[in-house]
Amino acid sequence: MRIDVLTIFPDYLAPLELSLPGKARAKGLLDLRVHDLRQWTHDRHRTVDDTPYGGGAGMVMRPEPWGAAFDALLEAPEGARPTIVFTTPSGAPFTQEVARELAGRERLVFACGRYEGIDQRVLDHAASVGEVREISLGDYVLNGGEVAALAITEAVVRLLPGFMGNPESLAEESHEDGLLEYPVYTKPAAWRGHEVPPVLLSGDHASIAAWRREQAVRRTAERRPDLVHASVLLDDLEVRLVQ
Ligand code: SAM
Prior knowledge:
alpha/beta, 5-stranded parallel β-sheet, two-stranded antiparallel sheet, 8 helices, elongated, binds S-adenosylmethionine
């Protein structure tokens, strides 16, 4: 997979050089490039923003640097059609399902907004050179799209085939089966008066699986009843436990 990140704060993406994407790069799974959008400006002040048409507070990112950046990065006609991710609080929520979809793409380009956002025509133009995805990290407003690009990249890269030493660890994670993950424990078996649940020490794999399932359902019903019909599942479990 190739990932390009377009930002006016390339240093913000420095963590991408660290362990996770670094590991993916070493394995030859990821070609990651971070670009300073200002290199596609031509005035002395390297301006990327201007006042909004129609008035209002704040500044809007001008279209020209984005257009020039897309021309430079996406011009190779033989290359895979890119998926251009605009990080925005008005986008579709980022979920594990979206991460899986993006992990199947050959080419991702992140457009990190700043100020009041990017001139809409940049998105309209991007749709003519690639697949456009507008993605939100959550229902809150960040100062810029870089943190969202970091989070999305991390969630996507760990799903790349061949990245995880043990792919089974992915299957059991929160959100993979519509449930939050059960609580996990390691050694020692007793710590500061807190015991590991005895079933986990029993060696009885069927009982351990049943306990974990029950914990996952219970946790999901309590914390995120919106995720699945977890409360129904919980009812079902309680009926079976009582029997
Ligand atoms: N005026 C915009 C609005 O109300 O939707 C918010 C602009 S925000 C201050 C600047 C940039 O931060 C956005 O263009 C976007 O790239 C990024 N951003 C802010 N919140 C985000 C979120 N929840 N998810 C993804 N990106 C976000």
